[in-house]
Amino acid sequence: MTSHTRSPLLRLRPLLLAAALALAAVTGCGTASAPGSEPAAERSSSAEPAPDRAELEARAAAAQLVTDHVWVTEAAGYALARQSVGVLGDDGFGSSYTAPDGGLLQLSVERRPHAVADCTGAAAPADGEKPLVTCERDGEHWYRATESDHAYAREQDGLVITVSGAREKVDRATLRSAARAAHRADGHELDRVLPPAGGGSGQQPVERGDLPPVGDGAPDNEVGASG
User: Fold this and answer.
1) CATH of 8-42+51-193, one of 3.40.1000, 1.20.1250, 1.20.1070, 3.40.50
2) Exposure string (b/e) for 110-134, b if CB count within 10 Å is 16 or more?
3) What are the angstrom distances between the C-alpha of 49 and each of 41, 55, 71, 146?
4) What does UniProt give as the signal peptide span (predicted)?
5) 135-156, pLDDT tens digit by residue?
6) Residue 185 DSSP class
7) Is the pTM of this model over 0.85?
8) Please, how many CA atoms are within 13 Å of residue 68, restricted to the half-sphere of its CB?
């Protein structure tokens, strides 16, 4: 389990690689419609029948996700990068939203103590953490920022929901808007966010085909070995 006192800005770092790959896919090949890329009114007025809940639960379980921990958000110009969807910590959820101009929003949902602890307990940053420039209440959220990153966090039903981004890429107004729009995914949104049946999380390990069955597990780099 991740440390309760570490900054949410750092807890989201494991998602950066998947997000960067997702951004490359978005800018290079276009982006399919996903939560965050269409107006909320359009989603809520959809006449499509709700997806089968048992199927959604099975897809979530296959990706090691808890459906109640899957949240979505939206921000003007941003779309969900489905390649970034994955487990965060033990049973949390993480995803990224990208914009054509290189903007990147990261959404995380974690079961941990109240977000207020991120401010009141952050006077002395842990090793490797950047000192806070500010940490303040903003409506029902807590806003915290370092020189390079910033985030909005709030607590609901025992979960802390955080939306973060780099300050040079995402301005505070956009970050606030995305944080306020964040909500637990409904059936239609789960269907769009979860990996398809038979698929898996974008953060599952890649299986190598060149590892020998015996020995110290070093890769076999001989000619003809598969990569």
Assistant:
1) 3.40.1000
2) bebeebeebbeebeeeeeeeeebee
3) 16, 14, 20, 44
4) 1-24
5) 999 999 999 999 999 999 999 9
6) -
7) no
8) 7
